[in-house]
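Researcher: Predict the fold of DUF1275 domain-containing protein.
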Amino acid sequence: MNKKSYHMAERLRTASMLTFIGGFMDAYSFKTQGGHFSGMQTGNMIYLMMELAAGRYWSALSYLLPIVCFIIGAMFTYFIRKKIIYKRGPWYLTSATLMFVGIFIIGLSSMTSYNQLTVALLAFFAAIQAETFKHVRGTPYANIMMTGNLKSFSVFLAQGISERDPIYLRKARNTFLVVLAFAFGAYLSAKLSNYMGNNTIFLLMIPFGVLMWILYREEKK
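Model: Structure tokens for DUF1275 domain-containing protein follow.
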């Protein structure tokens, strides 16, 4: 039986690269930008409420900013993809190109501005990434937050074992690998930021460049 062919945007290598990027960005923003998250808005929301409860209202606003920018980024992605680009072909390559340019702009801004702008831009582009890339080999996953992926891995593994179904075991394997990629991205970002500081973000242009290349090759077929 022939194996099902997936678009490059849904293949395991692409999903692993994207979760690596997600982990790298969150660790970078938390460590170098005042304890704020770029993609994990749950963390920002918890800190927001904690600051409000402590009466530190100006500090609370700094956690509200990435949440709002994430919402704007998700809405931007929907309208651009649906109203402008949808009829011209897949959105994946355009999205990857936007994020590549965005990371370069963020790198420049992080050297010359307050961290609020850097975190806001990171949250905006994290939303584009999350809203664009949603499946790995036909299975829904998240590339900027791992709670849902850990739950999916556990359920797929349990189903695979109890039903002796290799399909669920493969889904469990794929989900586990994207979680590992996220963890490795976070680890590498935390390590390198000790030496490179804010400039660490420029390293993300490498995986984004590779992502653009493989998506471009896919679209040429």
